[in-house]
Design goal:
By secondary structure, this protein is of the alpha+beta class. Helices cover 47% and strands 13% of the residues. The protein is built from four helices and five strands, in the order ββααβββαα. The strands form two sheets. A three-stranded mixed sheet has the order 3-5-4, covered by helices on one side. A hairpin with a 2-residue loop joins strand 4 and strand 5. It is globular, with a radius of gyration of 18 Å. It starts with 5 loop residues before the first strand and ends in a 21-residue tail after the last helix. The relative contact order is 0.14.
């Protein structure tokens, strides 16, 4: 359908980008189902599960970062990752910042590459930033979707495969 690249607001968005986005989305969905975090999703618990899954600890560090600087920083080391996030913001914004940095971790793991030096938002490429946002939004979206499905169908173990994952019989409004 899209044999030629088409224009987005900032630069070209081509078949390679679309494939990469689809790969990250699919990988993120499988990952959150494998991790099966308690719902509602708490990013600290997700980080603990991801650390156990990877065998590399993830430390969350709240810090009063300058308002005109980055809101989050990922410090990747061989024996652990540290996510530093803005202390002076709302809890919802902090969760988004942490999920964004988790997105970098997941994208790096999928690509088999990790940066040697600490990175801030100003050091990442547009592609890296896009990857992190795709992973973060997919993880949150899947968690919310599964939580809604569990509430709707009264599932006690919402991450476990069930007939509700593939077939739902709706008798219409009650």
């Amino acid at each position: 359908m899209f044999s030629r690249p088409f224009r987005r607001r900032r630069g070209l968005y081509n078949a390679v980008d679309r494939r990469r986005d689809a790969e990250l989305t699919s990988h993120s969905r499988r990952l959150i189902h494998r991790l099966a975090p308690p719902l509602p999703l708490r990013v600290a618990e997700l980080c603990e599960l991801l650390a156990d899954h990877r065998g590399i600890p993830i430390t969350l560090q709240k810090w009063e970062l300058p308002a005109d600087g980055p809101f989050g920083v990922l410090l990747s080391r061989r024996h652990g990752d540290v996510i530093v996030y803005q202390a002076n913001t709302t809890e919802a914004h902090q969760a988004h910042i942490i999920l964004h940095e988790v997105g970098h971790i997941v994208a790096y793991d999928l690509a088999g590459e990790r940066p040697e030096l600490p990175q801030t938002r100003s050091c990442y490429s547009d592609r890296d930033e896009r990857d992190a946002e795709i992973v973060a939004s997919t993880l949150m979206h899947e968690a919310m979707l599964i939580q809604r499905r569990a509430q709707r169908h009264g599932l006690s173990e919402p991450w476990q495969p069930s007939m509700y994952g593939s077939l739902v019989i709706d008798d219409g409004p009650a």
